[in-house]
Amino acid sequence: MGFGSMALGPMAARSLQAATNPLSVREPHFPATAKRVIHIFANGGPSQVDTFDYKPELARMNGQTLSEGNLKTERKTGAIMQSPFGFKQYGQSGKWVSDLFPNVAQHVDKMCFMHSLTANLPNHEPSLALMNTGAERIAVDRPSLGSWVTYGLGSENENLPGFVSLCAKGLPVAHKRNWRSAFLPGAMQGVHVDLAKAKSSSQVIENLDNLATGSGMQRSQLDLVRSLNATAGLGDGVDSLFDAQVQSMELAYRMQMEATDAFDVSLEDERTRELYGKNLFGDQMLVARRLVERGVRFVQVWHGGGQPWDAHTNIEKNHGRTAQESDQPIAALLTDLEQRGLLDDTLVLWGGEFGRTPTVELPNNTNGGGALGRDHNHYGFTMWMAGGGAKQGYSYGSTDELGFQAQDDKMHVHDLHATILHMLGFDHEKLTYRYSGRDFRLTDVHGEVIKDLLA
What is the pLDDT of residue 356? Predict the structure, then answer.
């Protein structure tokens, strides 16, 4: 009985913590094929016709103007411009991939390509908001995709955040609103990590370590705060902002040891480090793997702040640089996840907020456009998925012969979100949160699950 009583205390404490912890594990609506997500965000809008959407007609019609005029884009565009990159077929699926991604191309038989995605507007701000939150107006307070996933599933590791956003060297348009929790509980907010700023793994998350007191004293202080809050009738849902503050203090305390370990890529063997490339983006991808294997539910990896894929000028130089930075690390991630048995239930998603035009952008003194660059294109663009129950070696939908707009099986961003939630075991119409007198959901009143994408 004595030993049983000794064990009962910690067990009861853990049970109480699980009951009050918004990140405790929850079951989805139905059996899922994916348990976690790594979203690789090609920030700025990669060109579909220069990466994964092969259009030989561009070479034949290079320099010609469209007979029916160009589609309306953010800036004026002119004649058709062929891709400066060559394309080859890979794998048993015979998928065409440009010379930009020779390493990723080795994995095409694991990948599911979506060639007919559409957004609403050819601007970074609304398209980023749409891709990340399902609402194209940045000023509208909507939770991000990662926050919805964390809200639905919780986290498998109580000592790490459920949602981490790896974004180095600056912030994207709209900054941290891209990974906000909005009206969802504050614990669902994405934790921003800039690996480029940290001099050591212990500095990855700012102000994490308490240099004044040890862990025992910190635990006593937090317990005292909890008891005072209970006496004052605070906490446990009375005030969501207050709860978020308390939960962040608790999480910071629990993270002090495990977070340092999770972000320390030097703990990996030399072979794995070489596989990822030993550069900033490679470290981000390696950290993404380390996080998901530790139970983090959603990891978003941004390819730089600003818009590194935003090729208004000299697309050959721009995309050549950004693809070189990301090709080996992305391929390494797919290889590493597969070798560790994680790819089957980890959904890897790649893409930007929109694509680019097959026509050349005309020179413009105000934005520096032109000179063999391409403008934003929301009419039809490509993204791909791998793992997590996505159909392998498959291409869904198509754009027209020039790659300007979606032609067959058009797929809106709302449909993408509905499909991702389905793979995670959720009916997107039922994953809701009551706020301000109505039930909100990621897909608002839109979205259909694209069953053809599912294995």
Answer: 98
State the CB neighbour count (10 A cutoff) for residue 89.
12
pTM: 0.87
At 321, list the tokens.
């640089």
Q: Quote the DSSP letter at residue 424.
A: T
Nearest Cα to Cα of residue 303 among 317, 289, 324: 324
CA 69 to chain centre: 35
Banded model confidence at residue 108, pLDDT cuts 50, 70, 90: very high
Q: What does the chain come to in residues?
A: 455
For residues 432 and 183, the answer to whether their CB atoms sit within 8 Å is: no
Instruction: Count Cβ atoms within 10 A of the Cβ of residue 103 and give its class: 0-12 exposed, 13-18 middle, 19 or more buried.
Output: middle
Mean pLDDT of 171-180: 91
Q: What is the pLDDT of residues 271-286, one digit of tens each?
A: 999 999 999 999 999 9
Q: What is the pLDDT of residue 368?
A: 58
Question: In sequence order, what are the residues at sequence separation of 6 or more whose Cβ sits closer than 8 angstroms to the Cβ of residue 81?
Answer: 58, 62, 63, 358, 359, 360, 372, 374
- Please name the residues in contact with 335: beta carbons below 8 A apart, sequence gap of 6 or more: 107, 275
The CA-CA-CA angle for residues 395, 400, 404, to 5°, reads 105
pLDDT at 19 over 60: no
pLDDT at 227: 75
Tell me if 53 sits within 8 A of 403, measured CB to CB.
yes
Residue with tokens 């020779």: 102
Residue of 35, 42, 49 whose CA lies nearest to 381: 49
Q: What is the pLDDT of residue 68?
A: 86
Tokens encoding 262: 């999770």
Measured between alpha carbons, how far apart are the two ends of the chain, in Å? 52
Task: Supply the DSSP symbol for 175.
Answer: G
Distance between CA atoms of residues 344 and 231, nearest Å: 48
